[in-house]
Design a protein that fits this description.
- The chain is an alpha+beta fold and 298 residues long.
- It has three domains: 2-36, no CATH class; 89-167; 174-297, Beta Barrel (OB fold (Dihydrolipoamide Acetyltransferase, E2P)).
- It has five helices and eleven strands.
- The protein has helices spanning 38-69, 76-79, 88-166, 174-179, 237-249, and strands at 2-5, 12-15, 23-25, 32-34, 188-203, 210-216, 222-223, 232-235, 255-267, 273-286, 292-297.
- It has a five-stranded mixed barrel.
- A hairpin with a 6-residue loop joins strand 1 (2-5) and strand 2 (12-15).
- The radius of gyration is 63 Å and the shape is rod-shaped.
Length: 298
């Protein structure tokens, strides 16, 4: 007898062996199905036997290889470094060691990252410092060039003034300079045939140097030593003192020739005004016969 079960309603029945391999109908739900035959059972048993044989062969080969080569597939605990025979305290200590190793690796990685960031920041600062140093060098170079340019211009101006003082070309009258001072500003001129009295030479407090009262040999106009509203004359302490002493000690000076540089003088005291100043840098004194008696220079 063979026990069968309906694949739809689950009804179980016993049927004679001769019905194996034949189609039957379920008496309950009328579902037709085939009763497994002995040939299918034999095939199933043979398949199971082959599978078991292969499994056993694999087990034998595994143990042969492990005994031969000393190798084994580690378990999960072995991969984690745990020994199945370890106690809970040992496993906890092992786990704590692994945590400490992981923390150390993390700390080392963080330190490496911080070192790289620090090096990058140092490189950036170094590049900025080099850039600033280059900019400072450029500014210093420009400042030196500007200073050299100014010094060159000052030397050229000084050379021009020296050359102009040695050989002044202009010989205007006192009235011409007084009426049109803008024409003569910055120029060196010669005033010939003028006279100066000793009482008109004095150190002027506001001007800060000697001032001189000057008059032409011909004409009544006198240019006071006090800067008022017109042309006035000034000179250095050396020429002022020497000329004053010479006029006080000698009557042989009939006329004077004044070498002057026409400047602008900003008068600060009332009434405030921009005045023409004739700065005397050289004086030649002549006698009545027209002979040069003395020269006063800075």
């Amino acid at each position: 007898m063979a026990a069968i079960q309906c694949p739809k309603c689950g009804l179980q029945k016993d049927v004679p062996d001769e019905f194996r391999g034949r189609p039957v109908k379920c008496p309950k739900c009328a579902t037709e199905f085939r009763i497994p035959g002995t040939r299918g059972l034999v095939f199933l048993l043979a398949y199971m036997a082959v599978f078991v044989a292969l499994g056993g062969l694999s087990y034998v080969c595994f143990h042969f290889l492990t005994r031969e080569h000393g190798a084994a597939i580690p378990s999960e605990q072995a991969r984690n470094g745990d020994n199945p025979g370890q106690t809970d305290e040992e496993r906890q200590a092992k786990e704590e060691q692994r945590r400490q190793e992981l923390a150390a690796r993390t700390k080392a990685q963080e330190q490496t990252r911080l070192d790289e960031e620090r090096k990058a920041e140092e490189a950036r600062k170094k590049a900025e410092e080099e850039k600033l140093a280059q900019e400072r060098q450029r500014q210093e170079k420009l400042a030196r060039e500007e200073q050299e340019r100014k010094e060159k211009l000052a030397r050229e101006e000084q050379e021009r003034r020296v050359a102009a003082r040695k050989d002044p070309k202009l010989t205007p009258t006192l009235d011409e300079v007084d009426r049109a001072p803008d024409t003569f500003f910055g120029q060196c001129v010669v005033f010939d045939r003028v006279k100066v009295k000793s009482g008109s030479i004095e150190k002027h407090k506001e001007v800060g140097r000697f001032t001189v009262g000057v008059a032409a040999m011909r004409g009544d106009k006198f240019f006071s030593r006090v800067p008022l509203n017109s042309l006035f004359f000034s000179t250095s302490d050396r020429i002022g003192n020497d000329l004053l002493n010479a006029l006080l000690s000698s009557d042989d000076f009939y006329r004077l020739k004044l070498y002057c540089e026409i400047r602008k003088f900003d008068k600060k005291w009332p009434p405030a005004k921009l005045l023409p100043e004739a700065y005397i840098y050289k004086v030649e004194a002549y006698n009545l016969m027209g002979q040069l008696r003395k020269t006063f220079e800075e």
